[in-house]
Amino acid sequence: VQLVESGGGLVQAGGSLRLSCTASGRIFSRYSMGWFRQAPGQEREFVAAITATFESRYYADSMKGRSTISVDNVENTVWLQMASLFDGDTAVYYCAAVTYTGFTYGARDYYARPNNYDFWGQGTLVTVSS
Q1: How far, in Å, are 33, 50, 73 from residue 30 at the CA level?
Q2: Which of 1, 5, 49, 75 is least crowded, fewest Cβ atoms below 10 Å from its Cβ?
């Protein structure tokens, strides 16, 4: 599985940005997808995730209400729409894929852990200017 992110760039505070992650083939029936970010000197942190069945979406508290994760199964692309950006959102954003297992109990905590993911993209840089 190969994942390629795009859509990063420079955006003013308060602005919006949509990131995309294109997968090498139709993987969304087998893999749940997550977005993470990593700021300089910081650990990689969870942003959002969507399950392979598209039934459940999970968001970090910091992104809830101002981000949306979605999937285009025809284009093999997972999107991350972000709004009301501020300088704390500056980071390299990564998408990742994890084998879907179907469990629901504790799912959010599971999808929030980077170590659970099997495949990663190379990342795309988002810089928010104040």
Answers
A1: 10, 12, 12
A2: 75
Query: Does position 48 have pLDDT exceeding 90, yes or no?
Result: yes
Residue with tokens 């994890």, as numbered in its chain: 98
Q: Residue 33 carries which side chain, given as an amino acid letter?
A: M
Other beta carbons within 10 Å of 6? 13
Distance of CA 7 to the CA centre of its chain: 12
3-state secondary structure of 6: strand
Q: Which residues contact 74 (CB under 8 A, 6 or more apart)?
A: none
Dump pLDDT digits (tens) for 57-100.
999 999 999 999 999 988 999 999 999 999 999 999 999 999 98
Distances (CA, A) of 13 to 5, 22, 43, 65, 88: 22, 26, 23, 16, 10
Between the alpha carbon of residue 48 and those of residues 45, 59, 76, 92, 126, the distances in Å are 10, 4, 18, 14, 16
Residue pair 63/78 in contact (Cβ under 8 Å)? The answer is no
**How far apart are the C-alpha atoms of 40 and 54, rounded to whole Å?**
32
